[in-house]
């Protein structure tokens, strides 16, 4: 007898029927962990051609690499340009295009249905010119949540094994690791203001206190707080400074980057402190000191570890194989008419 409710149910059924009948050749499947995946209804393998390796560093692609490394079936990732005519998707990494080390093969005619994919994991401040690539690409792959393929620097997975204890052997209040110091960066301004109120231990080339990679996490583990300050502030641009340095190091991240909503969408609940949430750096400093002095409240920032663990992603092959898991959900016809406008937010 609840009319609005019944109307909604009917609408839902109609929408579902349209989805099922639209015959696009894929089924949407909702997985147990709540993410949406797509299953193919035909078993033709997908061929992904990588036109050039990011930063010139090639990884072996022998055998069925997506299956062997990631248990992703039906995904043929190749890096031989002779496969151009067989490729469903051709992948171009932005950095080498911008530096002109590589060129788009605009002289070749794309086979019908082949899509070109633009790939970049750097922020618009660092990825170089993209204005020249209007009307070229059909798909994007980046850390952005609204890219066609999202490849974040890290993500959460359900915790199933042992829960590692919170590291409690803390000797520094706030730590920061910075190599590329630029006083005009927003992060440098915030650092200067905050350091007037709390002691910040700084590592990295800037302070001539180089921290070898092997010592990074153990050093951060002895800090109550770690400044996970991004080098530039852009939508969804959240890097290994949060995912690896802070979360795996076991210090509470104090983050500077995109707005709190972007962090809340991907990071564990009650796991970070966002600079924007404080009216002044004096307030932030006072808050950090209070938290470090209160073991109960401090530990609450690590409760998420009982349910979640962090998975880092660093291998380009994993990113390329991921295209296949999304292949049947990708937009069939799409052109990035203004890649500059899309990417520069
Ligand atoms: C097309 O351009 C690519 C990239 O610049 C080059 O490697 C290739 O030899 C060219 N092919 C033809 C048929 O001109
Ligand atoms: C969710 O499950 C799917 C399929 O089981 C898997 O591919 C995906 O990586 C999982 N995502 C997370 C966040 O665990
Ligand atoms: C705590 O850290 C200090 C170095 O700061 C180290 O010497 C000591 O062994 C550590 N203790 C534990 C229990 O890990
Ligand atoms: C891909 O982009 C090209 C260049 O704009 C366009 O001609 C082609 O129709 C697009 N293909 C698909 C499948 O969207």
TrEMBL record:
Residues 44-154 form the Fucosyltransferase N-terminal domain. Keywords: Glycoprotein, Glycosyltransferase, Golgi apparatus, Membrane, Signal, Signal-anchor, Transferase, Transmembrane, Transmembrane helix. One of its GO terms (cellular component) is Golgi cisterna membrane. Pfam families: Glyco_tran_10_N, Glyco_transf_10. Pathway: Protein modification; protein glycosylation. It is a single-pass type II membrane protein; Single-pass membrane protein. Residues 1-25 form the signal peptide. Its EC number is 2.4.1.-. It comes from the Eukaryota. Its main location: Golgi. Residues 168-342 form the Fucosyltransferase C-terminal domain. It catalyses: an N-acetyl-alpha-neuraminyl-(2->3)-beta-D-galactosyl-(1->4)-N-acetyl-beta-D-glucosaminyl derivative + GDP-beta-L-fucose = an alpha-Neu5Ac-(2->3)-beta-D-Gal-(1->4)-[alpha-L-Fuc-(1->3)]-beta-D-GlcNAc derivative + GDP + H(+). InterPro entries: Glyco_tran_10_C, Glyco_tran_10_N, Glyco_trans_10, GT10-like_C_sf. The keyword Transferase applies. GO terms for molecular function: alpha-(1->3)-fucosyltransferase activity. It is found in: Golgi apparatus, Golgi stack membrane; Membrane. Belongs to the glycosyltransferase 10 family. This is Fucosyltransferase. It comes from Periophthalmus magnuspinnatus.
């Amino acid at each position: 007898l609840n009319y609005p409710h019944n109307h909604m149910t009917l609408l839902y059924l109609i929408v579902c029927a349209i989805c099922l009948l639209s015959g696009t050749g894929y089924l949407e499947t909702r997985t147990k962990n709540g993410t949406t995946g797509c299953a193919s209804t035909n078993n033709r393998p997908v061929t992904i051609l990588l036109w050039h390796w990011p930063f010139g560093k090639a990884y072996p692609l022998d055998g069925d690499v997506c299956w062997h490394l990631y248990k992703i079936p039906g995904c043929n990732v190749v890096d031989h340009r002779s496969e151009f005519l067989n490729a469903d998707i051709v992948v171009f990494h932005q950095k080498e295009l911008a530096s002109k080390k590589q060129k788009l093969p605009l002289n070749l005619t794309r086979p019908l249905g082949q899509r070109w994919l633009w790939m970049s994991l750097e922020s618009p401040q660092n990825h170089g010119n993209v204005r020249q690539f209007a009307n070229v690409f059909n798909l994007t792959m980046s850390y952005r949540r609204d890219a066609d393929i999202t490849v974040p620097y890290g993500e959460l997975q359900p915790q199933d094994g042992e829960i590692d204890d919170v590291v409690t052997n803390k000797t520094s209040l706030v730590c920061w690791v910075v190599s590329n110091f630029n006083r005009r960066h927003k992060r440098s301004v915030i650092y200067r203001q905050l350091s007037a109120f709390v002691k910040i231990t700084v590592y990295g080339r800037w302070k001539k206190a180089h921290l070898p990679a092997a010592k990074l996490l153990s050093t951060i583990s002895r800090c109550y707080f770690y400044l996970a300050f991004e080098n530039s502030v852009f939508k969804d641009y959240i890097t290994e400074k949060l995912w690896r340095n802070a979360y795996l190091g076991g210090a509470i991240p104090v983050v500077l980057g995109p707005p709190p909503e972007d962090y809340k969408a991907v990071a564990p609940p009650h796991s970070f402190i966002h600079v924007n949430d404080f009216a002044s750096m004096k307030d932030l400093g006072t808050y950090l000191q209070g938290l470090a002095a209160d073991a109960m409240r401090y530990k609450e920032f690590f409760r998420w570890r009982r349910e979640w663990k962090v998975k880092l992603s660093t291998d380009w092959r994993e990113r390329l194989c991921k295209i296949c898991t999304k292949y049947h959900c990708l937009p069939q016809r799409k052109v990035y008419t203004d890649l500059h406008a899309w990417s520069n937010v």
